[in-house]
Design brief:
Blueprint lengths: L4 E5 L6 H14 L7 E5 L5 H10 L3 E4 L16 H6 L4 E4 L2 H6 L4 H14 L2 E6 L3 H5 L3 H16 L7 E4 L13 H16 L3 H4 L3 E4 L4 H8 L6 E4 L6 H14 L3
Parallel strand pairs: 1-2, 1-8, 2-3, 3-4, 4-5, 5-6, 6-7, 7-8
Helix pairs in contact: 1-2, 1-11, 5-7, 7-8, 10-11
The structure holds phosphoenolpyruvate.
């Protein structure tokens, strides 16, 4: 069975005080042993600060993005090597907000995935279609193209990471894909990965898009949904703990 993962993406939210309070609240409600992996993607400035208290709970900490190059004249950017240096273990690549707001193309996403793997960071590759693309009947084609653009460059090295299916129309909108809609895309993604060999067939496929305690159980009950990438609800420790508990109760063993 693929690894089960619940990951929180704080986007550009949070402060040192908020992070400390959040991790203290997680510690309070933490149940051992955990039967799924938990990851946190805070803003980059909070990553070094999160490492120690998160590691104490077995929570991995990751970057929301990394630059393709290892160093150089790229003012304001952060390299995957720098993230590893401060203790990060994962990075998101290709989040739809970066594709849309920062103009990241499939080629950029592939280059950032290469950078992550080069430095020893595990990439979580985000893919997903817009509402217009879904309405036009192109959802699967779009997701396949996004996935294959990266697979063409890194091949089965992506087995070190994960894929997050995040329909753009469901991110931060309160609108969740139905468990059936999400599962259908997860099966399509799994088929693409499996066709490239058994290592890729075991890559965890997470769902993301307005996941909350109220809808998590029904999503996790689906066979090919191996976890969740949670945005808004991950800022609330009680909600995040409830989503983790839903994964452990309703996810695949
Ligand atoms: C995300 O940021 O990846 C996300 C899925 O956000 P939200 O849960 O807020 O829709």
């Amino acid at each position: 069975m693929p690894q089960r993962i619940v990951a929180g993406n704080w986007k550009m939210n949070g402060s040192r005080a908020q992070l400390a309070a959040f991790l203290a609240a997680l510690r309070q409600g933490w149940a051992e042993p955990r039967r799924c992996d938990v990851l946190l993607f805070p803003p980059a400035l909070l990553v070094p600060e999160a490492i120690e208290p998160a590691s104490a709970l077995g929570i991995g900490v990751g970057m929301q993005t990394v630059h393709p190059e290892a160093s150089g004249a790229f003012t304001g950017e952060l390299a995957a090597e720098m993230a590893v240096d401060v203790g990060a273990s994962w990075t998101l690549v290709g989040h739809s907000e970066r594709r849309e707001l920062c103009g990241e193309s499939d080629e950029d996403v592939a280059a950032r995935t290469v950078a992550a793997l080069r430095a020893g960071l595990r990439p979580m590759l985000c893919v997903g279609e817009t509402l217009e693309q879904r309405r036009a009947g192109n959802a699967e084609t779009v997701v396949r193209e996004q996935l294959e653009a990266v697979l063409a460059v890194v091949g089965d090295e992506l087995a070190a990471g994960a894929v997050a299916y995040e329909p753009v129309w469901a991110i931060g909108t309160g609108e969740t894909a139905s468990p059936e809609t999400a599962e259908a895309m997860h099966v399509a993604i799994r088929d693409i990965l499996k066709a490239r060999g058994p290592r890729l067939g075991m890559v965890p496929i997470l769902y993301g898009g307005s996941v909350k305690p109220e809808n998590a159980a029904a999503l996790f009950a689906k066979e090919d949904i191996d976890g969740a990438l949670v945005g808004g609800a991950s800022l609330d420790a009680a909600a995040f703990l409830a989503i983790i508990a839903a994964m452990e109760t309703h996810g695949n063993p």
